[in-house]
Amino acid sequence: MRYVPENPLIVQSDHTLLLETMGPHFREVRDALIRFAELVKSPEYVHTYKVTPLSLWNAAAAGMTPGQVVEILDTWSKYEVPPNVPVSIRETMGRYGRLKLLPDGDDLILVADAPVLMTEILNTKQAQPFLGRAVDDITVRVAKAHRGELKQALTHVGHPVEDLAGYVDGEALAVALREQTLGGKPFSFRDYQNLAIEAFHGDGHSQGGSGVVVLPCGAGKTMVGIGAMARLNMKTLILCTNVTALRQWRDELLDKTGLTEDDVGEYSGASKDIKPVTLSTYQILTYRRSRTDKFVHFGLFDRANWGLIIYDEVHLLPAPVFRAVALLQARRRLGLTATLVREDGKQGDVFALIGPKRFDMPWKDLEHQGWIASASCTEIRVPLSDDDRLRYAVADDRAKFRLSSTNPRKGPVVEQLLEKHKGERILVLGMYLDQLNWLSKRWKMPLITGKTPQSRRDELFEAFRSGKISAMVISKVGNFSVDLPDASVAIQVSGTWGSRQEEAQRLGRILRPKGGDNKAWFYTVVTRDSSEQTFAEKRQLFLTEQGYAYRIEVQG
Q1: Do the Cβ atoms of 15 and 53 come closer than 8 Å?
Q2: Model pLDDT, residue 485
């Protein structure tokens, strides 16, 4: 029986992978696994991964072959790889591309690689409403209007479709790139940004033009979007998480391209300008007067002849927007995100409707190259007081989480960290407004919440960037798309249950490259021996997968 003691990987027959963390090959194997497997849990000595159909299909769409996946497992497994695993990997990855959508006059055709597969598809209830008449034993017609819904349905039942039906060209718009920014600095794309742009564009062939680019916060996802616009030169709709992000996109477009203010419009609560490049938010798109009314602003998708739609922070794409995306499959679609993790489990819908993952760059690779800051992550565990421990013992699950998240004993820790990092730019991040209000008043730090007017937010962000203020308290509205390049310290005092993407986004607030030693510090303060500590372990999964290790400090 095979036994290679220095190999760190154990492959199990249920497609679970156990990775030992203490050996010399841990980092190398971890970086290989994230290309085709998902991290499930990460205690100190053994990390657990799962090989799933979606992780394999994304790997296949990104160019990995089943042989490469199996070779990685064979090379690094401590024991023999169970014989069912390579067979399953080859079969699962082999499904990607067995069904193809192709153009055919005014319709589309779905083509299978074998009659038996088409027979199965024709008898799949989820797909039947979207299929037309059969052409032959491997081909069936599909109305263009059903392109997205069919892909979504078939992905759900384990039959991913390779969409080669192409796109309609939107109205032309020249997007010229500047060689110097408006501030006189030289401008060009970094090597990995060029690779991401090319992976999305696909040289204009039908294999390109839709999909997701995954890059860490601070690595320039906006630049990838601008590069895609410059390659296509068509009218573009850009959807953002909030108005702050929208205006940051506008500023970057004006700074890095020849587009003028007459070319770039804002479609938000404050303005309804439709221009060759239009920026809007998910919030405005999902507005409706009541739960039974129609979405008021979905018509934005049809208001211009868009050639490209960019979905910023695509992992946050609201569920109602998926329906609109399903009807937009003839438009080129670019999703940008730091993590494809979705807490609602709709990663499969992103794959089917936006497109597969086209490019992914490990966070640590960019850190080693100096493109993002080197981050030190620390979890500080504090106890409850005796009175609060008694209240905790008799509370229900939700109340337990709130009690532990808002533990008053976190206050002295925040004070210590503010003193330790005096002179740095500090963000205090949390979820519970009463807790954040108290911290803001106690240490005289300005507070930004969902109720803060946009004008006031812009004023405070600018004051932080200029150094007029050195510390701010921010609620969940600061999780996404807030450009504060000089922030180097984040103190997380509470979070949204076990949200992996929130943890990643909050670390991302401090990862933009800095001068000097290019370092950042991320602290998460949790209550010891509580449900918050349990959820914190789940929150950290994605960052652990990317190579970040949390140092644990126990107080009291």
Answers
A1: no
A2: 76
| Same domain assignment for residues 472 and 336 | no
Q: If 0-12 CB within 10 Å is exposed, 13-18 middle and 19+ buried, where does residue 164 land? A: middle
Residue 543's CB: how many other CB atoms inside 10 A? 24
- Contacts of residue 444, defined as CB under 8 A and 6 or more positions apart, other chains included, come to none
- Measured CA to CA, the distance from residue 454 to residue 53 in angstroms comes to 42
Size (the chain), residues: 556
The answer to whether residues 156 and 302 belong to one domain is no
pTM above 0.85, yes or no: yes
Token output for 74: 């064979």
Q: State the residue range of the domain holding 314.
A: 191-361
Question: Two tokens at 198?
Answer: 């090319």
Residues of the chain whose pLDDT is less than 50?
A: none
Distance CA 104, CA 97 (A): 18
Q: What is the pLDDT of residues 148-162, one digit of tens each?
A: 999 999 999 999 999
β-bridge mates for residue 9, sequence order: 19, 77
- The pLDDT assigned to 289 comes to 85
Q: Are 218 and 513 in contact (CB under 8 A)?
A: yes
Residues 154 and 294 in one domain: no
Give the whole-angstrom CA distance, residue 431 versus residue 13.
41
Dist CA 35 CA 338 (whole Å): 15
Closest CA to 495 of 381, 406, 399, 417: 406
Residues 470 and 440 in one domain: yes
Residues 249, 107 share a domain? no
**Tokens at 490, concatenated:** 């984040």
Percent with pLDDT over 70 in the chain: 100
* Residue 85 maps to a domain: yes
Sign of CA dihedral 488, 492, 496, 497: positive
CA–CA dist 233, 178 (Å, integer):
15
Q: Are residues 228 and 281 in the same domain?
A: yes
Which of 340, 361, 382 delimits the end of a domain? 361
Chain-centroid distance, C-alpha 363: 13
Alpha-carbon gap, residue 48 to 33, rounded angstroms? 11
Q: Is residue 316 part of a domain?
A: yes
Q: Are residues 374 and 489 in the same domain?
A: yes
Phi–psi pair at 253, nearest 5 degrees: -60, -45
494 and 351 in a common domain = no
480: domain CATH number is: 3.40.50.300
